[in-house]
Amino acid sequence: MRYLTLVVLSFYLISCESKSEAEKIVDLAIQAHGGEAYKNSKIEFDFRNIHYSIYKSASGFEYIREFSDSTGNVKDVLNNEGFVRTVNSVKIDTLTEERIGAFSRSVNSVAYFAFLPYGLNDAAAIKSHLGSTEINGENYEMIKVTFHQEGGGDDFDDEFLYWIGSDDHFVDFMAYSYHTDGGGVRMREVSKVQEVGGIRFQNYLNLKPEDKNTPVESMQELFENGKLELLSEINLENIQVKPLEE
């Protein structure tokens, strides 16, 4: 038994040592924001008058959004098997591939940001540590994330930069570039924090530069010089965290 314990301990130490600095920093951030609670919960919230239900684990995911419009009660479901839209409980089979792609990206985007930083350990994510910096007198580690094309989704060529607190490991700022809908770059600053069910949820001020081709690495300087324009606010409302049934 003692021998087995030593083997397990040795394997654990080797696994930890084999992780990159970026992976270690992201692991600390995930733990600070919710850790195991992410894997054992279904999250529900309202965002811009649309209701979302999100579940994500290492083996699967399901993102649901529900709203009403002129066609009736709309329900979009995105999971490992693909995307399905129903209106008044009737499946819509006439959606084009273009529309399916647009709806899927929209649902996935909201889920991705709501689940941060948990999603940063997805298999398709490529993480690198760009060093340390300071914003508003606080120290941060800069983690850049890109994606493998395989498993990275339609937006695999997007780039993200996260400022993670050196001491508290919270993600207080992020910047990202995207290529859909004409492309652009954004920076988000945390405006409010709510802790529900052991998970830290963050609202953001959504900022943009004058030049949509600005590299994500240049966003901090523009932010500190007051050169970013407030575009919108990202606010999650009526948050619920429901433990999954075993």
In short:
This protein is an alpha+beta fold.
What does this molecule look like?
Mean pLDDT is 89; it is low at 1-16. Helix content is 22%, strand content 45%. The protein has helices at residues 2-18, 21-33, 97-115, 219-224; strands at 41-47, 50-56, 61-69, 72-79, 82-87, 90-91, 125-135, 138-147, 159-165, 171-178, 184-196, 199-208, 229-234, 237-243. Strand 4 and strand 5 (82-87) form a beta hairpin. It contains four helices and 14 strands. The protein is of the alpha+beta class and 246 residues long. The strands form two sheets. It has a seven-stranded antiparallel sheet, covered by helices on one side. It has a seven-stranded antiparallel sheet with strand order 7-8-9-10-11-12-13.
Q: Compute the number of structural domains.
A: 1
SSE pattern, N- to C-terminal: HHEEEEEEHEEEEEEHEE
**Name of the CATH architecture:** Clam
Q: Tell me the strand order in the biggest sheet.
A: 6-5-4-3-2-1-14
Main sheet summary: 7 strands, antiparallel
| Proportion in β-strands | over 45%
Specify Rg, calculated over alpha carbons: 19 Å
> Please, how many helices?
4
Nearest-integer average pLDDT: 89
The CATH class label is Mainly Beta
Helix fraction, binned, reads: 10-25%
Number of distinct beta strands: 14
Oligomeric state of shown chains: single chain
User: Residue ranges: pLDDT <50 for 5 or more in a row?
Assistant: 1-16
Distance between the termini: 30 Å
CATH topology: outer membrane lipoprotein receptor (LolB), chain A
Protein name: Deoxyribose-phosphate aldolase
Pfam family, one: DUF6503
Organism: Algoriphagus zhangzhouensis
InterPro entries: DUF6503 (IPR045444)
